[in-house]
Amino acid sequence: MIQFEGVSVVYEGGVRALNGVSVAFPRGETTCLVGASGSGKSTLLRLVNRLVDAQEGRVLLNGQDVRSRDAVEHRRGIGYCVQGGGLLPHLTVAENVSLVPRLLGWAPVKAAAAVERTLGLVRLDPARYGARRAAALSGGERQRVAIARALAADPEVLLLDEPLGALDPHLRETLEDELRDLFRRLRKTVVFVTHDMYTAVRLADWIAVLDGGRLLQFGPPREVVTAPANEQVTALLGRRRADLERALSEAS
């Protein structure tokens, strides 16, 4: 579904965010990008919806180079969610969720149906939450609405950049459980950025480990946890092996 072919990205000042990354993410499955801050994981994700363009290599979506399409049109066909949600605070929940369908020219009835459907997917009652202002929501509610907004136009691809990073541990784990079930039901092609290997093991069908702009390992969670490719991957796993083994059991 998503292919990276020898992709390199260099930011202003000569900072090399990605260095010759080649990897393919399977259709209908969840790939988690894991690594320390500055490893290149968010840059790799943003290449997919052209918030960043590569100086070298190609990014293919369904076999088509993403740079061959109009950037705005391309982005409207991809679900995108960031840490904190990125909601427009002056709009209601329903207005936020229906934003992309309205930009795509959907009829009001169809857009309203999308709001009801996707709020239901993230376990928010449309009748209770639809008219609320985004600014009045709790952190967990904002993140649920942001995920609903990303899903509203029924995209094939869903990009989530540290969506749970600002939440407290209990709420984070609750949402991880819900997202894992949601991803398995919808079978979207999901790319999920996290710095937490535990989160990745719980959610992912595939894990890509990055460091210094390079891909260190790509494989299913059990393989990454039980057979790390090198010392850098082992260090990222840290001392939480018992937790990771438990997460593997929960995810299976």
List the helices and strands and how they pair.
Blueprint: E1 2-11, E2 15-25, E3 30-34, H1 41-48, E4 56-61, E5 64-65, H2 71-76, E6 78-82, H3 93-97, H4 99-103, H5 108-121, H6 126-129, H7 139-151, E7 157-161, H8 169-186, E8 189-194, H9 197-203, E9 206-211, E10 214-219, H10 221-226, H11 231-237, H12 241-251
Parallel strand pairs: 3-8, 3-9, 6-7, 7-8
Antiparallel strand pairs: 1-2, 1-4, 4-5, 9-10
Features:
4-stranded antiparallel sheet; alpha/beta; 6-stranded mixed sheet; 41% helix; 252 residues
What does this structure look like?
With 252 residues, this protein is of the alpha/beta class. It is 41% helix and 25% strand. The chain contains twelve helices and ten strands. The protein has helices at residues 41-48, 71-76, 93-97, 99-103, 108-121, 126-129, 139-151, 169-186, 197-203, 221-226, 231-237, 241-251; strands spanning 2-11, 15-25, 30-34, 56-61, 64-65, 78-82, 157-161, 189-194, 206-211, 214-219. Strands 6-7-8-3-9-10 form a six-stranded mixed sheet, with helices on both faces. It has a four-stranded antiparallel sheet with strand order 2-1-4-5, covered by helices on one side. Helix 5 crosses helix 7 (139-151). The longest helix has 18 residues, at 169-186. The model has no long low-confidence stretch (mean pLDDT 91).
